[in-house]
TrEMBL record:
Residues 11-130 form the Purine catabolism PurC-like domain. Residues 488-546 form the PucR C-terminal helix-turn-helix domain. This is Polyketide synthase regulator. It holds the Pfam family PucR. It comes from the Bacteria. InterPro entries: CdaR-like_regulators, PucR_C-HTH_dom, PucR_C-HTH_sf, PucR_dom.
Amino acid sequence: MNGKKTFTIADVLERPVFRRAKLAAGEQGTNRRVGWVHVLEITNVSPFVSRHDLILTTGLWLTRKGEERAEYMEQLIRSEAAGLCVELGTSIHEIPLEILELAEQHHFPVIVFEQPVRFVEITQDIHSLLINRHHELLKDLERFSRQLQQETLRSTDMNALLRVLHDYTARQIIYMSSIDTNRFVPSVQPESADHIADFYANEVASSMTADREGHLLFQLNDSTAVLFQPVVCFGQVFSAVGLVLHGETPTEEMSLLLDYTAKAAATLVLRTQFLEDRLLRNQNELIQDVLNRQLPSEEQAQTRMGLRLLSKGQYLFWAGVIEVEHEDKDASQVRKESINQDVLVLLRSLLKKETLHNLLMMKGSQCYILCAKEELTLRSAAQMRKVLAHTVQYIQNYAAGQLDKVRIHAGFGKVRHRMTETDRSFEEAYQVIEVARSVPAMQDRLFYDSIGIYQLLKAAPSIPFLQEFVQDHLGGLIAHDREHHMQLLDTLDAYFQCHGSKRDTAGMLYIHRQTLYNRLDKINEIVEGSLADPDKRRCLEMALLAHRMLQAEN
């Protein structure tokens, strides 16, 4: 494909059938691409003209009034046709000056045959040429695709793919990545590399979305543009392949080459992430030591994590657990392991993209996460929390959309300033997941400090202790509801939620006010105390929360 070009108006004028033709207007548009040839004599041409069509006509429309003639030309210009060929001597003998001026204004080529010509000869000649070129293009793309496949099977060298693209296009190739080093084939000066990296980060990256199809063209400066194609893995853009153009218009061939290269690059990115996961087994050992409280010192722990030791300031450490729930009980163990590994690779890539230092360990269907970030400002913890929440949300959306019968649960403990204390954060993360799964009102909670009073309930020494506490304070109401179905527990719960407002409670339960009074009297009688007593109310509220949690867990 190297050295070939798109078929243009300039190429048309070189064809033997155009030896007797002359270019009457639009000389600056001779680089327009020609995709097909049509013969059109009607005046309403818009529905029948596609982009890059070359229109053949005897000029019958030029016999119309001035406004109608101009409208015909404007339709062709708006439709982005390649140009217009007019045969003189059959319907007209000359083209009006205002039509030529309009074409010249829009750089729209108008080719004139001053003697009659057989349109069928033109269409046969150009169509056969276009079809042959398209056939050659497909063969070139097939060869290009095979070469990319060979490179991806041979190694994980991204430069090898970029060199293949460079060989086929003879143009500067760039590769911008949020999880890897940027690459340039051939290499460029450091100043140019920095300039392109800044340009990509500020002007391009935000437009590189996974749901956007096709390439994007951006002007680097007045004379240079870059055609970008995103590299998409797991529905996320991690990098982009770019083709530098100097005063050129992007062609379909360029777009296809970029698309093939981006797909091959995505394969390498995924494979690299999987290989990286194998090479990081020491992370498992380090997290295991954290869980077992076998870290001798904070300094050694940070060194093993790869953190530089700070002379000033401190790190923020956030530990959490992401649990993959396989709802399909018939799924094979191989499929489950494959899904678990996909989630791990996606999580690693997302955290790497956010430049968040992390350790990950997959154990069964649970992924342990330990993230570290230098506390530079008072908002560092809030920013870190936002990144973690966004990451979990993306993985949950990915599972819901791409993985059948798979749910993602996640929880994070409290942020801490010492890595040697994060074993407690992992315990808190477990508690967040348990509360979110067992209490409907808490199902969207991710962080330990957001589960409120359930921190105390989960800290209870044992489940029998909680069961005994519930029995002591609510046992009579539970037994009465079981026998008489008066919904006293639901009534008490609604009464507390409405802050003791009887009117609001009756409205919430959709019952008559007198019915509520009767139930409250019965509740006061069974619990042997007044609901207005603050100590009694607090005990009952805690017992209700514990009861709901234990019910859900059972």
